[in-house]
Amino acid sequence: MSRAVMKKKERKLKTSSNSLGLAIRVGFFLAVRQVRRSNIWTNILIIFIMTLTFLNLVVVSGILVGLIEGAVVAVKERYLGDIFISNLLNKSYIEQTPSIVKTIQYIPEVSAFSVRYIESGKIEGNYKDLPQTKKSTDIDKSVGTQIVGIDPEKENSVSHLSDILIEGEYLNKNDYDKVVIGAMLLKKYLSFDSAVFSTLDENVTIGSKIRVTVNGNVREVIVKGIVKSKVDEVDRRVFFVDTQLRGLIGRFDYNADEIVLRLKEGVDPNVVKSQIVSSGADLYARVQTQEDAEPKFIKDMKQTFAILGAIISSIGLVVAAITIFIVIFINAVTRRKFIGILKGVGIHGRAIEVAYIFQSLFYACIGTAIGVLLVFGFLKPYFDANPINFPFSDGILVATVDGTLWRIGILLIATFVAGYIPARIVVRQNTLDAILGR
Amino acid sequence: MIIVRNLYKSFKTGNTELTVLKDLELEVKTGEFVSITGRSGSGKSTLLYQLGLLDHPNSGFIEIDGIDILKLDRKQRTDFRLNELGYVFQDYALIPELTAIENIAVPLLMQGLSIKEAKKKSFTALERMGLENRENNLPSQLSGGEQQRISIARAISHNPKVLFADEPTANLDSETADSVLKAFLELHKEGQTIVMVTHEPEYAELTERILVLSDGKISTDRKTKNK
To answer: What is the DSSP letter of B65?
Structure first.
């Protein structure tokens, strides 16, 4: 045979079965049958491992982020609202409060708002047991706190204080000399001994009389309710009806200390903030969204937990990739002889690699699908309804659709690589050695 | 069809080198049915692996159907095995999770045939082996003889230029082995070139030509009465 004929034949060989499309078709054909006809329990075990891997990726970091998210939500729900207006740093209250309130009333996106009057003061329990004249050696059993005047209905529509009552009743508009008190002001609700947080004695409870000293005025008031929110700013306050407190502190001009706004569903707080600022309110008050007003330690914790979540997710991803690698590698090694046979009868290595990639993607997809069902069909609704009771927050499971899709994408890429590498290692081995098991 | 010149193959085990094939020369004509025999360790299978492109010799020249196969790269060798050769292994070498017809169809799919075409062609090959009623059985559901005939069906389904068989009857009882040999003889009658390694003289005698391998060379090359 002439050299030209030989070259022609070699050229024909080069292109006869070399396309990626063909490799994908044959690879898929092999993968489907290998998965369908392999041991059902092996398949279930691999899918179970993949599901756990997915849960490890989403749930562990989700709970970690949810731990701080619970605190953020609590601060927003109970204290800051969607928009938080407070006094300028060089002023002791919000000047021109009535005009700011008027502006707020005309903003349609605002669903509710509450005006808070605040003054520093002190409270004392069991004060009748104290000696009439105080000696310098006597312990001061008074507790410094913030006395807050609220319109009970309006405040409740913003911060839902009545929902977090753990004892007694909530205030109503006509209450006089009655207060709702934060749980952290009572010894029986403070779970730790603190040199910083002084508290009223254990026997102070609903119906107890306590003495409130504010702005030089002293009142005996009855504890009507106790609230507990896991938000210090709420749990260390004493709430009066605003009309009485304004009288006590001489705030007859209606200038307040905090105005809290709750917005309608889906409204961007920045839009409403701009509206308020454009009315000139920023000359008299600091207008902040909840995010702006968040205490710095929460912002820091959010960042810290996000980093921790990312680290844990990365470890989860590496574990997932290694798991898939091991599963596929063991599968490929135990089937080394058959891989050799396939190559021996002319099946391209690429088609065999594709078969293993399809298999690993199959396991990852099924495991992920079950994981998604578990997360969104069971775990997230469960934790939303039954938050984990952490000391400083009600921990929820944070699993956003975007975040989950992102993780699924990364998991599938990791699966692709982790399925490909072991298949490649085994496929690259000498065909005859594989067939003969050498 | 097959021309082999100065074929040399050795294996290294530690510091010792074992030479299995030494300056081996061989020619097989188109349509011939050749058996290779010899004592255990004489290099029969090694020779078949070199001819079947499953292994690479240290030196020499092998031409099959006008192509110098030792000059082919890895992908070309795979293509050559796929398109031009058929291979029957001693232990059937079927893929356990593929049915009989799927085992035959896989190489055809790799050649670019559609699943329908591949299955049609595979079924024809099964019919030739008398196993048309076993198409959907997995290898584990077939007897040794049936598995070997499936293996032959896979090897011939794409009409290869040469069919190599490595001791195809070694794992079979005599009755089943006879039926497998009969299948080879029928293929030969249809013009198929076959090179078969066997250590059973009575089967070797059924072929056209017997090559006896000894000390890495062909010591005897004789035609049988079937020629």
So the answer is: T
Q: What would the pLDDT profile of B159-192 be if each residue is shown by its tens digit?
A: 899 999 998 888 888 888 888 888 889 889 989 9
Distance CA B146, CA B177 (A): 10
Is residue A334 left, alpha or beta, with left meaning phi > 0 and alpha meaning psi from -120 to 50?
Answer: alpha
User: φ and ψ at B36, to 5 degrees?
Assistant: -115, 125
User: What residues of B are in contact with residue A336 (Cβ under 8 Å)?
Assistant: none
Q: Is B171 on the interface with A (CB under 8 A)?
A: no
Structure tokens at A36: 């369908």
Q: What angle do CA B163, B165, B171 make, to 5 degrees?
A: 150
The values of phi and psi at residue B69, to 5°, are -70, -20
Residues A202-248: pLDDT tens digits?
788 899 899 999 988 899 999 999 999 888 889 999 999 999 999 98
The answer to whether the CB atoms of B67 and A9 lie below 8 A apart is yes
Residue contact A351–B66, C-beta within 8 A: no
Per DSSP bridges, beta strands B16-28 and B2-13 are: antiparallel
Largest CA distance in chain A: 126
The pTM (predicted TM-score) of the whole model is: 0.74
Give B175: exposed, middle or buried? Use CB within 10 Å, 0-12, 13-18, 19+.
exposed
Cβ within 8 Å, pair A346-B82 = yes
Q: What is the distance between the alpha carbons of residues A316 and A312, in angstroms, rounded to a whole number? A: 6
Phi (first) and psi of residue A70, to 5 degrees: -60, -40
Instruction: Out of A13, A22, A36, name the one closest to residue B80 (CB).
Output: A13
Question: Alpha-carbon distance B70 to A267, whole Å?
Answer: 74
AA letter at B38: G
A10 to B72: CB separation less than 8 angstroms, yes or no: yes
Q: For chain B, what percent of residues have pLDDT higher than 70?
A: 100
Q: Do A17 and B82 touch (CB under 8 A)?
A: yes
Which chain B residues touch A431 with a CB distance below 8 Å? 54
C-alpha A275/C-alpha A277 separation (Å) is: 6
Q: Residue B142: helix, strand or coil by DSSP? A: coil
Q: Which residues of A touch B76 (CB under 8 A)?
A: 10, 13-14
Is A22 in the B-facing interface, judged by CB distances under 8 Å?
yes
User: Would you tell me the crossing angle of helices B144-156 and B115-128 to the nearest 10 degrees?
Assistant: 120
User: A293-304 pLDDT, tens per residue?
Assistant: 887 877 888 788
- Dihedral sign, Cα of residue A148, residue A152, residue A155, residue A161: positive
Partner-chain contact B83 A343, CB within 8 Å: no
Torsion of CA B54, B56, B62, B67, to 10 degrees: 70
Sign of the Cα pseudo-torsion (A197, A199, A202, A207, in order): negative
Rounded CA-CA distance A115/A260 in Å is 7
HEC readout, A246-311: HHHHCCCCCCCCEEEEEECCCCCHHHHHHHHHHCCHHHCEEEEEHHHHCCHHHHHHHHHHHHHHHH
Decide if A346 and B83 are in contact by the 8 Å CB cutoff.
Answer: yes
Q: Which CB contacts under 8 angstroms, 24+ apart, belong to A312-319?
A: A312/A60, A312/A61, A312/A64, A313/A57, A313/A60, A313/A61, A313/A407, A316/A53, A316/A56, A316/A57, A316/A60, A316/A61, A317/A57, A317/A410, A317/A411, A317/A414, A319/A53, A319/A56
| Least confident piece of the model among A7-16, A350-359, B206-215 | A7-16
The H-assigned helical ranges of A335-379 are: 336-344, 349-374
Q: What is the ipTM of this complex?
A: 0.91
Residues A397, A370, A49: CA angle, nearest 5 degrees: 95
Q: Does A432 contact chain B (CB < 8 Å)?
A: yes
Sign of CA dihedral A7, A13, A16, A17: negative
